[in-house]
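Structure first, sequence second, as always.
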């Protein structure tokens, strides 16, 4: 069993995009479980498994690949890891990337929940500003630390670990009808 774990570890080390997608999917799923159990207090019998699987799929197919790619692009646009560079990266991340990412996330979640285009648009209009403002309360200091202290290949994992609470919020917000 240990050999299997080491083999998987080596494979993921050679495929950082796969590792990022798997990490994001697992942590999006964990955030949804926390949202359903601790925030919504559904209990085990009331837990909506398909919702957790949808959130995991969004993590695997959207969050991991998109955020991982964004960090690589951001590192090319603004190389280095000084304090000034970290602040510049955070401003670009939070001023440009986060608003687009959150809009796409809400749209994808609505579509996966079977909302019509019109209902999805209404839900996005209802939730977007509040979600973005909550984002701005949490992420700027996290991102400055992330861009200053954390090597590129570990940034998504660090963000996703911090994001357990954020994913819980996003799952609750996106799945509230």
């Amino acid at each position: 069993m240990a050999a299997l774990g080491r083999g998987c570890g080596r494979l993921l080390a050679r495929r950082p995009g796969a590792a990022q997608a798997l990490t994001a999917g697992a942590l999006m799923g964990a955030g949804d479980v926390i949202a359903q159990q601790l925030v919504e207090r559904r209990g085990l019998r009331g837990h909506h498994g398909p919702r957790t699987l949808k959130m995991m799929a969004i993590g695997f197919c959207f969050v991991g690949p998109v955020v991982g790619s964004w960090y690589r692009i951001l590192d090319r646009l603004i190389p280095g890891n000084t304090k000034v560079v970290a602040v510049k990266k955070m401003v670009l991340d939070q001023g440009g990337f986060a608003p687009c990412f959150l809009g796409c996330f809400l749209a994808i979640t609505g579509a996966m929940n079977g909302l019509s285009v019109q209902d999805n648009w209404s839900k996005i209009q209802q939730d977007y500003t509040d979600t973005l403002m909550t984002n701005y309360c949490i992420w700027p200091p996290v991102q400055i630390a992330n861009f200053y202290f954390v090597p590129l290949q570990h940034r998504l994992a660090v963000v996703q670990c911090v994001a357990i609470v954020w994913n819980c919020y996003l799952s609750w917000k996106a799945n509230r009808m």
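Margin note: The chain is about 90% helix and 0% strand.
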